[in-house]
User: Fold these one by one.
Assistant:
Number 1:
Amino acid sequence: MNYWPLLGIALVVIGFALRFNPLLVVVVAALATGLLAGLDLVAVIEALGQAFNDNRYISVTWIILPVIGLLERYGLQQRARGVIESVRGATMGKLLTIYLLFRQLTAALGMKDIGGHPQAVRPLVAPMAEAAAEKSHGTLADEDREKVLAMSAATDNVGLFFGEDIFFAIASILLIQGVFESYGYPLTPLQLSVWAIPTAICAFIIHSWRIRALDRKLGRGRA
């Protein structure tokens, strides 16, 4: 058995540890894996091209990311902070709870890509949550600031993860249906989606409590 192709995994780990460009690291690791597996360079490039062509939705990233980068360059985060600072009574807890509800509802309707870390959290949600926290509690320590940013990212994750299963045409629901059917429990995707609603409600309540708990700790200066 040829173990040399596994060197590609080591290249990924080393490249990320040294903080090299992620895209460059992945491409180099893919090329190295293919060559060490005995493929010629043309075959490796063909395999990469076929994978990209079979997953053409990935190309949307190359449109979204430059747009977000330009918006940030011209002050999108500062605008977002300014909006929150001008809203009376705005707090980090209220803002992230509203975003959690929005993320769950849109994911439940199948619009799971309407939010996300690169297109929503980094340019809008995180700076707005940070501005709301500073408006309520004054200048934040670096550790507290990182906790606010982390909570913003976690809110997006929780909203998407527990909201998307309510949408019966999502891949995870179809996977669960297939598993149940293989064990002799024929269920429709709609039945599984309905039973995902109580879990989503519990997730909303629990994470909303976590958000408010962090907001209260920031207020007491013990976050």
Number 2:
Amino acid sequence: MISAGQFYSYLQYRWPHLLGLTIEHIVVVTISIIIASIIAVMLGVSLYRTRQPANAALTIANIFVTIPSFALFGLFIPILGLGYPPTVTALVMYALLPILRNTIVGLRGVDPAITESARGMGMTSRQILWHVELRLAWPVIITGIRVATLIILGIAAIAAYVNGPGLGKNIFTGLARLGTAQGFDLALSGTLGIVILAVVFDLCLALFGWLTTPRGMHD
């Protein structure tokens, strides 16, 4: 029988180790979401006016999401080895779809009357894109980034399969020792850590989105 007191004692004893794994998880997810955001937003900006190329990009991003994570990490081993390279590459691939889709939807959702007014004021197409369309589409884009972050927070745990960083190491080790008190503590601590990180990441991104959204667009 596993007791709450026993789990609490485990957390106290293993706190430095858990903190190190948590920092690793934060770092790999942050790096991956930044790279994915840059790629997806640039693609969205380039393709949102063209129907077929945009659909093709979304289809490819959809295909990435359908690949089982264990299989994808396994396929990367002979190409990228172990550790950070396969982890970041896979996480970026899984994060692309929500950000790309929301970028395209957000930019296409800008009222044409607004862009025409900006053009009538003498703004160039590039100025309209950066100062009008992207600003108006930003709340939709940041929502895509939040969704992508929550998705890869969980998938990052599976990266332990390729010796990736993060809390997945505790989960995998715990599952291998399931049936013992130590196995339960390991698996539960890793799982709870990811849940807590998901809440913290989402709150931070929500605050970031609110701070960077133009005045007058807040709900």
Number 3:
Amino acid sequence: MIPGIGTAVNVVTVLVGTVLGRLLGNRLPVRTRDLVTDALGLVTLLIAATSAVAVLDPALSARVGDSAPMLIVLGSLVLGGIVGSLLRLEQRVESLGGWLQRRLSGETGSAERHRFIEGFVVASLLFCTGPLTILGSLNDGLGNGADQLFLKSTLDGFAAIAFASAFGWGVAAAAITVFVVQGALTVVGMLLGDVLPDAELAAITATGGLLLVGVALRLLRIREIPVADLLPALLVAPALVAVAAALH
């Protein structure tokens, strides 16, 4: 199978889902669209929980010890958050969303602009921070097949329908993020020649699960956590595993 086909399919499902969501969303009252967003928030919490339990993965405990996994996740979020905050990643992502809104939709009112940006940011984070994004893209690049990305594409397509009915065309712009992030990871997989060790992958999965909790809190309108500022934690996590393993 051609490397990159999984990402291509994922981009298409996001775009198709967005179109269907817009066609459906125009016929739904605001109250119903808000309810759809709440349902997405609850499902995102469920996905986050299933990812976060990777902190209990036996491979991670065997590599760094029983007490270290929680500290690794904590350290990843703190250090990653500091780096992301200094780099102003959340602000840059929002600026990118605003630029795309002006280019793709033209100048509109501030409410519509905010809705476009929120749709782009939330959809980009949900589509690109899960474990399937990392492992699926790497395996695709390694020539091991794109089955995981095909599964993710199906999930993202349904999510795009719901997101687009609530947030509008900003969700379609998230296809660009999917293409860039998963495309880059696929290339990394082609260069690595092997998948990440189980312990490092477990740490990334658990950390990504907590990032998804932040996305869910935004969807549920509980707290506007700047999740983009925390994205460097996904890079810090495997580095901390290596450090802890050396000290173990």
Number 4:
Amino acid sequence: MSHSPLSVEEWRAVLAGEPAGAAAALFDAAQGGDRLAALHYGQCLLDGHGVDTDPQGAFRWFVQAAQSGLAPAMNMVGRCLDQGWGVDQTPHLAASWFAAAADKGDVWGLYNYATALTLGRGVEQDCAHALELFRRAAAMGHAKSQNMIGSFHEDGWEVPVNLNIAAYHYARAAEGGDFRGCFNHARMEIAHGRLEVAQRWLAEAARLGHARFRHQMAQWLNGREEESLRRFADQILSTDMTPA
């Protein structure tokens, strides 16, 4: 017995509800050929959201959605191949999927392909092209790309070193919610002696960042002369040791 497709409002209600119910609805729609449902159900399987975690199954759904031409799914196929989620880690194939997503204007595809070009991961290194792609993504409001543009200007990759331009992009990345942008913005504020402002952004970086990043940030702060920054490093480490 066939079912009428759900309206946008009905989908919003389903996805806002209980996770297992949302996953089941997505599975049914994906089985019926809905490529967006296939993408989102793949994400449920990858994250274990409403279903048991199944990276191999997630990869299969991402591939199915990507083969229909859905750019975000192309990016997720690339992510799986890059990280080894449910499939062998294959950087050169990952880069080709990121490039395909970027060609369609997908913001995460632009970011991930630009990152691959910057690192020379799975593709020949090309920082000039990478910067162009980061700029395209940043123009779409992508905070992580703003942070990367800041790094290019701070370190002099393909552009002259300019700390003022770097600081501008770090600030935009921080405002956009990128934890590395928060940290880099704080570094710029520390360099200007604005410790109170810097600590607010360090706290935000600690809140948004993962455990490994928080430890790296604490190590950097412990190397500073300012006592208040070293105290903040201790706070970060003690928070990491608190059971979840």
